[in-house]
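Session log. Operator J.P. requested a structure for one protein chain; no other inputs attached. Running the standard single-chain path with token output.
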Amino acid sequence: MRVPKGWISVLAKEIIKGLCEKKLVDLNKPEEEVVRSTDKLILDELMAEDIINKEVREMLSEYDTQIERGNLDYRRLFELTKRKLVRERDIIL
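Structure written below.
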């Protein structure tokens, strides 16, 4: 699922608020600072998939003519290539 950038800070704040309310974490820094760090972490994680997708598109551009002729299925190649890169780099999406 794609998350709009505007929602990330709201999501981060709700995560930290929920963890604190349930007494699952004890903050040793101001809540605003923890929320900012969480916001950055979430954004970085979401960007990882975008970076992988861009890389896969660049890799598959070498096969444009074969894909256009119908010899290769772009979606299938995209998914297989993406899974391979994710597995090789030990990334969790």
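Operator note: The radius of gyration is 19 Å.
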